[in-house]
Design brief:
By secondary structure, the protein is α/β, with parallel strands linked by helices. The chain contains 10 helices and 7 strands. It has helices at residues 5-16, 22-35, 43-57, 71-77, 93-105, 119-122, 126-130, 147-156, 171-175, 177-185; strands at residues 61-65, 85-90, 112-116, 135-140, 160-168, 189-197, 204-212. The protein has a 7-stranded mixed β-sheet with strand order 3-2-1-4-5-7-6, with helices on both faces. The model has no long low-confidence stretch (mean pLDDT 98). Bound molecules: the ligand CNc1ncnc2c1ncn2[C@@H]1O[C@H](/C=C/CNC(=O)c2cc(-c3ccc(F)cc3)cc(O)c2O)[C@H](F)[C@H]1O and magnesium ion. The ligand CNc1ncnc2c1ncn2[C@@H]1O[C@H](/C=C/CNC(=O)c2cc(-c3ccc(F)cc3)cc(O)c2O)[C@H](F)[C@H]1O is lined by residues 40, 65-66, 68, 89-92, 95, 118-120, 141-143, 146, 169-170, 173-174, 198-199. The site of magnesium ion has 5 residues, from loops.
Length: 218
């Protein structure tokens, strides 16, 4: 039976990266994607922007939608402050299984909670299941047409607070036009765009950083 691309990516990590060294896990995935097989990780160029936003926010509690192989999970978790936690949602069991092993290889399993399930089902349960009050940082990198419904769901579930930073990947390629229009026009967000390139390519892509300002009603 043939392996899948996520399985080949995991093998590249287990062969090339130093156990417990998150930086080398990230570097080996990037090397694999640059030289062997493209994969939809945020990558090194946009990853540096992700790193700078995460470092600026210094989140005690972060949420990621769309774990995939765990590349951005490792990038975020390695920068969390002591006691900081990252909850990441992934509904594809095969991707979740690969991501768990990538996260473990990086030695970050104690600060990452990987939930195998859909954002639509799980966002409404995060408070009761994980004792979450609100998130300091949210990273969107799942199905692009789910960015808008899921940020509305996060608002409705009161999982955002004044100052929560929401960072979205791929707002140019593949694009999330309805999401962009919303965060750029809503008085509830202060939004800014970081131009970059699609992972491992020269195509233009970018990240949108949106700070939640809270609702106007009392
Ligand atoms: C809907 N709720 C979900 N809940 C939990 N996990 C989910 C949910 N929805 C998806 N997942 C999970 O999140 C992941 C989905 C990532 C999707 N990402 C992309 O499509 C994506 C695509 C490109 C791309 C650009 C150019 C090109 F020519 C080809 C591809 C680049 C990128 O950086 C991307 O992120 C995973 F696969 C899915 O199971
Ligand atoms: Mg992406």
């Amino acid at each position: 039976t043939h392996s899948s691309r996520p399985q080949r990516l995991l093998r590249a990590v287990q062969k090339g990266a130093v156990r417990g060294d998150a930086r080398s896990v990230v570097a080996n995935i990037d090397r694999f994607c640059h030289h062997s097989e493209w994969a939809m990780n945020i990558g090194d160029e946009k990853g540096a922007i992700l790193d700078s936003v995460v470092s600026e926010v210094n989140p005690a509690l972060a949420l990621e939608l769309g774990t995939y192989c765990g590349y951005s999970t490792v990038r975020i978790a390695r920068l969390l402050p002591p006691g900081g936690r990252l909850i990441t949602l992934e509904f594809n069991p095969e991707y979740a299984a690969v991501a768990r092993q990538v996260i473990e290889w990086a030695g970050l399993e104690d600060s990452v909670q990987l939930v195998e399930g859909g954002s639509g089902d799980w966002i409404p349960q995060l408070k009761e299941h994980f004792g979450v009050q609100s998130f300091d940082f949210v990273f969107l990198d799942h199905w692009k047409e789910r960015y808008l419904p899921d940020i509305h769901l996060l608002e409705e579930c009161e999982l955002l607070r004044k100052g929560t930073v929401v960072l979205a990947d791929n707002v140019v390629c593949p694009g999330a036009p309805d999401y962009l229009a919303y965060v750029r026009n809503s008085p509830a967000y202060q939004s800014s765009y970081f131009q970059s390139h699609l992972e491992y390519t020269k195509a233009v892509d970018g990240l949108e950083k949106s700070v939640y300002l809270g609702t106007t009603d009392a």
